[in-house]
Amino acid sequence: MPDKPPAADRPARPSPRRPHARRGDRPRRTLDAPPPSAPREEPGGAPDEPPPPPADEPAPVADESPAPAPGEAPPEGAAGEGLPAAEPVGADLAAGLAKAILIDAVRRGADHVHFEPGRDGLAVKLRIDGVLQERGGGDARLPRSFIPELMAYLRSRAGVRDSAGGSWSSRGPHLVRPPAVPLTVAGRQVELRFSVLRTAFGEKAVVNILDPAASPAPLADLHLPAADEAAVRAMLSAPSGLVALAAPIRGGRWAGLGAAVAELAAPQRSVVVAAQHLAARIGPAAMLAVEPGAGFGFAEAIAAAAAADADAIVVEDVHSPAAASAALSAALDGRMVVAGMSCAAAPEAVALLVEMGLDGVALSLAFRGAVALRRVRRLCDECKRAAPAASGGEAGAFVPRGCARCSGTGFVGFVALASTLPARAELVEWLRSSAAADDVRQAASEMVSRSLDDAAAAALREGLTSPAEVARVR
Fold this sequence. Notes:
Elements: H1 91-107, E1 112-118, E2 121-128, E3 131-134, H2 147-158, E4 181-185, E5 188-199, E6 202-210, H3 226-236, E7 241-246, H4 249-264, E8 271-275, E9 286-289, H5 298-307, E10 312-315, H6 321-332, E11 336-341, H7 346-355, H8 360-366, E12 367-379, E13 385-386, E14 398-399, E15 411-422, H9 425-432, H10 437-445, H11 452-461, H12 467-473
Parallel strand pairs: 7-11, 7-12, 8-9, 8-10, 10-11
Antiparallel strand pairs: 1-2, 1-6, 2-3, 4-5, 5-6, 12-15, 13-14
Helix pairs in contact: 1-2, 5-6, 7-10, 8-9, 9-10
């Protein structure tokens, strides 16, 4: 066998790898853009022809069977885990239906849309004013024949490949969420963020609707009692310090954080919001996305905001000693820090800061107060009615009925249940003495304006909300 020529004399093989497109060259995906697998329209000509199938594979056959109308029951039969078989509807029909649902959700003020498959069809649910409700009242579920093409459309709008293409996240049965997809409804532009989950009955899609132009509701819109509103303003008006907000993420935290941003926002002040769950845009503040899985947690986000010359830092969740220490350091450096915390009450928030190992003297210098907040829907004044005596609720309470003014929900707007804990001299002295967390909790409990239970009872007596609403956020 002849000797091979030296490597230097052999001609170089062309690389089969194609150059990657630069990020700036990629077109921005929109709700109307064709999916990645669709033929591309060439200027002044016909769309590209798809490549012919391999010789050993039959050519695909177009499904010419008529698509069932919305609401029509799918044909019976066996498919998968004992589910009824159904011929999938056409892609155009599914795409038009999905877009109509999303547009309707935007118009109705929903912030999330759930496409949830089940044994009896596809349920579409809208989260409006914090409450998840099925579209059509549960009587308008789509047949299972809509699911394949509808989910394919949602995946393609989000720029996510089919699960067979290896796009499933290694962290579990969850598809990676791509950048937001813009949608314009009646001149209002929103952003759609998609999540897809594997479930027992197929893929479930959740679409988060964000309004980039939305402004945070001011503190006055929380409808706090005058004393509590004045206490919160006094805390936030300090030039620097640490304010704790005890509220669940789904029960008032974003309302409280947004009100804090609105109160802190000023032309001469830089405000940064560090958040992991971007459930909403918060007006003029710079949004800093927290990604703990990528090594950028809340502690790192607070440090980054401080290094970027932020005057005020609003943190979605301070739940670790590292994040608490970073928040305290930023406050001691002359910044106002508002820390969201998963605590049941204001005294629990200050006690948790002590339990996380913060230095008592440093905490006493920076602590400006704590606020416990729960946001509930406000009863419609035109249709609310007295609760039945046998309901077991608060005496004199009211319940919703529904009318044209409230679109049949029985509620219009929101009202906040609040409890405030200012940094009184006695509490500061407890912190300075490095007292135990239980002692701080007990002392703080005697200094709050009122408990959340008392705030809820007052709201029920005044007919502002219903017993069911109070129970929902407790």
